[in-house]
Amino acid sequence: MLAWGAIGIGYLLGSISFSFLFGKWWKGIDIRDYGSGNAGATNTLRVLGVGPAIFVLALDIAKGVAAVWIGLKMGQDRDLIAVLAGLAAIVGHNWPIFLKFRGGKGIATTIGVVATLCFGPALFAGVVAILSIVITRYVSLGSLLFTGLLPIFSYFMKFPPEIVWATVVIAVFAYVRHRTNIVKLLRGTEHKIGKKASGQ
Q1: Which of 46, 57, 126, 181 could link 140 by a cystine bridge, Cβ 3.0 to 4.6 Å?
Q2: Domain ranges of the chain
């Protein structure tokens, strides 16, 4: 029962959309009606500016970290429960019950989850992702590289199977949520970071 409770708490934590809340508090808007329509840190940057985006990024990462730690404590230090609680937080961010299952793309929350579960792979994949964003200014490309490299690094760094498989699931989530970005990247029409958003 404690294990199921940890997973449920992870999902509810993930379902707290800080991007949506900052949009309401900052400008009285539903951020999903502006820019990319995504409730996440990148769209917060486009629509609300740097300050709110930093807070959203930090809070979204924190809820991923918190979900894993809750899973560890309630699951009596079992990796599998921590993994499931972390995955539940990402699912909650992407498909939040509080916003009729229309949320973000889960990358910031993913960072919190994987940095807690497997810091080494998260670090190496993160370096590649950051470099790609600096060079290309495509956040979506960095996100895809980050999540796509996680299973490779976690496997070769010999992390437990449940963590390796979790990174595979995380990559699937990310690629599904970024499918429109992938099309835009291939067409050369993807928005670069720093470009101001317009209402939809």
Answers
A1: 181
A2: 2-187
